[in-house]
């Protein structure tokens, strides 16, 4: 009997990662329609993803109780964590899934299947599981090549060397020097023995068992980053992007009203006039920064859509931390929409009325914006976002950094610059 090809996808449970892996599943199905594709995760993630998944995509749920790992009840994904909750707790919790995943892979390998595993970098231990069970393995990096290469180098070399002028050289890449404000607080505090350092070092050790790296980028867009990544790894690196979500896709039927109302509002706006503001599903800014940003939006006088999360330190999305009357004025003047929770980002970026995107510059947001021809105003907050803005502004010329970070001493957004760029986007 002929062997069956079976691809197991194991993403890290963050909204951007899950979406990228769903896009990867579609790519695999188009390329190898005869192969079985199964996405592996925990019960709540499987339930959410399978509700809108195509019939050819299978799912396997690994037993998981968040409370057993110090996570809030029902928190099985990064976007379900309160703002500011240590993400390393979720990283460590997913390491505990290794025995269950190992058993599942072993059972698959016995069924006359040729099993290949594709996992996220944060689930690098899956490479060791693959090796033990005679399966091939590849990482799928949903971040860009430049950011992946930089962050891997920095985590391999914590504690970091910071010069008296605040600059951070990147080991292995002469000439690549960042300022400490472009490095996350978690990494700056890392001493090599802390939880985040220990987790990253464990994943780097597991990563040597992989057969290759798939990355959501394009050779022509990131030649420098891909060259850096290839020079630092001992396995092939294949750019397979851009993989982005489809305009109009909705997470659930309950979002229809938000989606349709927003599209109707966009239809009333002039071409390239709307500034879209979003800092992703995991990040937020401080209350004082949020107030300054609201002032900047009013000062710019341009239509906007702001997909908002509670500010750092607050758990409830009320309007108390916005300037008095801000939302009412925007609504009454038909000048802006403030949306709490899910927003149809790709639909917004694909609309003719959207002229610019004020973004944290997470990689999925970067690709979604550029694929639809929308320039970026960068406000990086964490992780690879600082690297992305550095590359997009200095190498690609498609982004302008207007603010950086969410710490108490971080500079607020430049109000006049946001206003000027809003006018440029309109033209």
UniProtKB/TrEMBL annotation:
Transmembrane segments: none annotated. It holds the Pfam family UDPGT. It comes from the Eukaryota. PROSITE patterns: UDPGT. Its EC number is 2.4.1.-. Gene3D superfamilies: Glycogen Phosphorylase B (3.40.50.2000). Keywords: Glycosyltransferase, Transferase. GO terms for molecular function: UDP-glucosyltransferase activity. PANTHER family: GLYCOSYLTRANSFERASE, UDP-GLYCOSYLTRANSFERASE 92A1-LIKE. Belongs to the UDP-glycosyltransferase family. This is Glycosyltransferase. The lineage of its organism: Eukaryota, Viridiplantae, Streptophyta, Embryophyta, Tracheophyta.
């Amino acid at each position: 009997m002929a062997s069956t090809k079976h691809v197991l996808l194991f993403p890290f449970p963050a909204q951007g990662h899950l979406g990228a892996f769903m896009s990867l599943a579609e790519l695999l199905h188009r390329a190898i329609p005869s192969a079985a594709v199964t996405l592996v995760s925990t019960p709540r993630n499987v339930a959410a993803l399978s509700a809108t998944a195509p019939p050819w995509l299978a799912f396997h749920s690994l037993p998981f109780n968040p409370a057993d790992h110090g996570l809030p009840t029902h928190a099985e994904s990064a976007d379900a964590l309160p703002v500011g909750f240590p993400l390393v707790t979720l990283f460590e919790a997913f390491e505990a899934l290794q025995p269950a995943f190992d058993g599942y892979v072993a059972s698959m390998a016995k069924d006359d299947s040729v099993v290949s595993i594709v996992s996220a970098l944060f689930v690098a231990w899956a490479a060791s599981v693959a090796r033990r069970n005679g399966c091939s393995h590849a990482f799928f990096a949903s971040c860009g090549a430049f950011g992946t290469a930089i962050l891997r180098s920095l985590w391999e070399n914590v504690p970091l060397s910071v010069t008296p002028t605040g600059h951070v050289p990147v080991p292995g890449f002469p000439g690549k020097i960042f300022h400490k404000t472009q490095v996350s607080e978690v990494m700056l505090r890392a001493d090599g023995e802390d939880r985040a350092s220990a987790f990253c070092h464990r994943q780097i050790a597991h990563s040597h068992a992989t057969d290759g790296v798939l990355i959501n980028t394009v050779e022509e867009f990131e030649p420098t980053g891909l060259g850096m990544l290839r020079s630092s790894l001992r396995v092939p690196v294949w750019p397979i992007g851009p993989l982005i979500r489809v305009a109009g896709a909705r997470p659930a039927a309950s979002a229809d009203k938000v989606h349709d109302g927003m599209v109707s509002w966009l239809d009333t706006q002039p071409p390239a006039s709307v500034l879209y503001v979003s800092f992703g599903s995991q990040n937020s800014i401080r209350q004082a920064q949020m107030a300054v940003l609201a002032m900047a939006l009013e000062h710019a006088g341009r239509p906007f859509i702001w997909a908002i999360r509670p500010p750092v330190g607050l758990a409830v999305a009320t309007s108390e931390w916005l300037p008095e009357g801000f939302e009412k004025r925007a609504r009454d003047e038909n000048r802006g929409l403030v949306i709490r929770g899910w927003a149809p980002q790709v639909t917004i970026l694909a609309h003719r009325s959207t002229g610019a995107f004020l973004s944290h510059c997470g990689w999925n947001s970067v690709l979604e914006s550029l694929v639809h021809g929308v320039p970026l105003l960068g406000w990086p907050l964490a992780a690879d976002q600082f690297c992305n803005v550095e590359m997009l502004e200095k190498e690609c010329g498609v982004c302008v950094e207007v603010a950086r970070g969410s710490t108490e001493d971080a500079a607020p957004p430049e109000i006049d610059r946001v206003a000027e760029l809003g006018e440029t986007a309109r033209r």
